[in-house]
Amino acid sequence: MSNVFGRIERATPPFAALAIAVVAVSTSAILVRFSAAPSIVKAFYRVLFTTLLLAPFAVARHRDAFSRLTIRDWLVAGAGGVALAIHFASWFESLEFTSVAASVTIVQSQVLFVAIGASWLLAEHVTRRTIAGMALALVGIATLSIGESITGAVAGPAPLYGNALALVGAVCAAGYVLAGRSLRQRIPLIPYVIVVYSVCAVVLFALVLADGAALTNYPASEWLLFVGMAIGPGIFGHTVLNWALAHLESSVVSVSLLGEPIGSALLALLLLGEVPSIVTVVGGAVILLGITVTARA
Questions:
Q1: What is the pTM of this model?
Q2: Where does 12-70 have alpha helices with state H?
């Protein structure tokens, strides 16, 4: 099995893999919207099934990597898992209250918070261009959120609340990235994500129990959606994106992720009949421009 995986990796063109990954992550919000299950249940099963699908790969190629993890490694990876759980819980919930275009665009602002966190926690240098990009994106977020309320644009039952949840999701996604930055320099991808996803699944399971949501008695269509979230955005999306980082410049991968809000908005238009308002389009464009400037800086 290890040799098979190795041959697949060597035969895969990095840019082709990146294109597939961007398309895959663009389906995430649509699959969440298609599901009628509680948001926290969707998040739990997405992470659980992604972990179970990756586990055989971890055993086949990296079983010794887990024994080399230190206590500090486990704690840092665990912190990343908690942050990722809050990210999924808040972002999935945001899709219940605001538009797909707004939610996905705002959650992609995680790049800004990675830059802020890196300068604060890791003492990384922040250039004027980075600050300008962050300021531009924040103006876009304010334009999108406040503008929808002022103009009365129909973006969901509670767009301000939904956009705020998406922003929480962005901050927590940045925390997940920052927690794993040092570990990923020493630990292979699959063992790392198995630990993080496992912790994430445990936290989400606890949140499901606290919420009192049902874990069973869903129709077959719901289970197919749960598995689809794991295979599409989970395996072919984020896991392939992490693989691409080993073969392409990080700036290329970061900027390519700007295709997710565009792809999600188009899919929402075609499959959900969700037409973004002019305020959402203008605010989203400003956010994406700010993210581009920040990522390239």
A1: 0.84
A2: 14-26, 28-34, 39-62
